[in-house]
Amino acid sequence: MSFATSPKATSVTPSVRLRERARSGVAFGAWCSLPSSSIVEFACAADPDYFCIDLQHGVVDMGAAISMLQTASRFDATPVIRVANLEAAGIGRALDMGAEAVIVPGVNTRAEAAAAVAACRYAPEGVRSYGPTRAGQLFGNSVSDLEEHALCIAMIETADGLANAESICATPGLAGIYVGPADLALGLGANPVDPSEQAVTDALVHIVDLCGRNDLIAGIHAYESARANEYVEMGFRMVTCAMDTRVLAAGFAAEFGRMRELRSSNSAPGNG
C-alpha cells in the first residue's frame, strides 16, 4: 500500500510546537468537547500551542473529529485527541486521522502505559497497524516520520495510577503525563469541583517531580486561566486553560448578566 505525500511533510510541523514549547516554557492549550469546526477555528485563531478534541467525555464522533482536524490544519496549534480508552485500534485511528499526540485515559499501571505506547508504534516495537490515511499526507509515509508525530501522553487520574506513578513515568517511549485533577480528587476522597485540597496538591507536586526526573511533559487540565496559572507555578508545562463549553457558558452568562443589570438600572424609579 502506498500513500501520496504532500509538501507539508517536509516542513516544520505543529507537533514540534507542543513538544518544544513544553520543554522551553509552557504549552497552553484549548479543549474541544463539542462537534464543531467553527469552534476549532475560533479557538485556534487565538493561537494556542495545542488544541485537544475530546473523544472520551466530549460529544464528538469520528466524522466530526476529522472535519475539526482539517479545519485546524490552517493553524499552527498541535492537534491532540483524547481517545476514549486504552484500545489500540482507537489510538491508531486517531493518529491516522492526523492527531500528532494522543492523551490516553485510564492508565493505572506501567503495563497499561506500555500498551498505550505500543499502540503508537509500529512493529517490532509496537502494535500500530500501518494505514496512515491522512497522517501520510501531512508527515510522510516512513515509519520514522509517522512515529515522530505520534506523541503518547498517559493520564494519571486515579488513586491506583498515583500509587503506580513512579513506574508509569519510567515507561520507555512515553512523551508525557496528563493529569485529570477532578478524577484524581475523587480517587483521593477530595472535592472534584474544587480540587485544591492538600492531598491533591501533594499528588500533583509528586507527579511533576516524576515527570522532571524522567524527561516527560507534565500536563494537566485546568479549565480556566487562574487555575492554570497555579499549575504553571507548580511546574506543569502543558496546561489546558480554555474549554469550549465553559468559554461559551461564561460568555453567554456574562452578556445576559450585563443586559439584565442595564435593564434593571433603566427601570429603577426615577429613570422613566
Structure explained in plain terms:
The structure is a single chain. 46% of the residues lie in helices and 15% in strands. With 272 residues, the chain is of the alpha/beta class. The protein has a single domain (7-244), classed as Phosphoenolpyruvate-binding domains (TIM Barrel, Alpha-Beta Barrel), CATH 3.20.20. An 8-stranded parallel β-barrel has the order 1-2-3-4-5-6-7-8, surrounded by 8 helices. The longest helix has 23 residues, at 244-266. The chain is globular and about 80 Å long. The termini are far apart. GO terms for molecular function: aldehyde-lyase activity; metal ion binding.
- Rounded mean pLDDT is 92
In spatial order, strands of the major sheet run 1-2-3-4-5-6-7-8
Q: What is the CATH superfamily?
A: Phosphoenolpyruvate-binding domains
Instruction: Note the run of SSEs as H and E.
Output: HEHEHEHEHHHEHHEHHEHEH
**Tally of individual domains:** 1
Helix content: 40-55%
Output the structural class.
alpha/beta
CATH topology: TIM Barrel
Cα shape: globular
CATH class: Alpha Beta
The CATH architecture would be Alpha-Beta Barrel
Rg on CA atoms, Å:
20 Å
- Biggest sheet statistics: 8 strands, parallel, barrel
Q: Report the portion of residues in β strands.
A: 15-25%
* Sequence stretches where pLDDT stays below 50 over 5 or more residues: 1-12
Number of strands: 8
Distance between the termini: 76 Å
Number of helices: 13
Organism: Nocardioides marmoriginsengisoli
Domain HpcH/HpaI aldolase/citrate lyase: 29-248
Family: Belongs to the HpcH/HpaI aldolase family.
Keywords: Lyase, Metal-binding
